[in-house]
Amino acid sequence: MASESSFIQLALPKFDRNYDHWAILMENFLCSKEYWSMVENGVPEFAESLTEVLRKHIDDQRLKDLKAKNYLFQALDRLILETILNKNTANDIWDSLKQKYQGTSRVKRTQLQALRKEFEILHMKGGESVNEYFSRTLFIPNKIKANGENKGDVVVVEKILRSMTLKFDYVVCSIEESKDTETLTIDELQSSLLVHEYAWFLMLHKSKPYKLLIQITLQNGDEVVEAMDDEEEDANTEVA
Questions:
Q1: Any residues with CB less than 8 A from the CB of 24 and at least 6 apart, and which?
Q2: What is the DSSP string of 38-101?
């Protein structure tokens, strides 16, 4: 049986002054080490008269806090490290970095307004692939979420459906009629659009001039669209 040390360890996220991005990575890293509670809640304070069991619990918590601090120290460069050496706990260090680098409330409000505007006017570009458009679209809600506001899947799904290029009009209408956009996930929408994009790709790049678009519905309900030559269809018909 492989030992724990043989598993690949998560890389420690280095602080690059992009607080929002680093905070997400660092929170995940500390959660994987089971130290995030120390950053989030700090070390609890207790009275002097403690039972042996409670005293041991506090000692364990303080040891966890020291380990969390050590990871935070390793994530910072020397110049930033020197500004937080007087902080006693991992919670103090985190709050200090957040206050300095996340920005003031006024700056966050300005950023949110700009991101909301960018999200409203977003449209798919001619020649842009489904994957490229989804990547560009999801970047904005993720930035909005990092600034404290969550758009939610429903808003993103409806935005994408409204902003596709004209060649997707039939597909969008089909999706809206056959699926509930309130429960449709972003991944499901992307999968449906990729299927139809692939069908068009086959139609445009087939070497033979005549094609017949056929649709196969699998047992799980997923749709696969393929392009077939008329000659191939005729051959299949003769064999049948």
A1: 146
A2: HHHH-PPP--S---HHHHHHHHHHHHHHHHHHHHHHHHS-HHHHTTSTT--SHHHHHHHHHHHH
pLDDT (tens digit, 9 = 90+) per residue, 49-80? 667 777 788 888 889 999 999 999 999 999 99
Distance of CA 4 to the CA centre of its chain: 28
Domain ranges in the chain? 7-101, 105-197, 206-240
> What is the rounded average pLDDT of the residues 24-52?
85
Model pTM score: 0.50
Q: Residue 229: in which H helix or E strand, if any?
A: strand 223-229
Are 25 and 10 in contact, with CB atoms under 8 Å apart?
A: no
Q: Helix, strand, or coil here: 155?
A: helix
What pLDDT was estimated at residue 48?
66
How high does pLDDT run on average in the chain?
80
Q: Which helix (H) or strand (E) holds 146?
A: helix 130-146
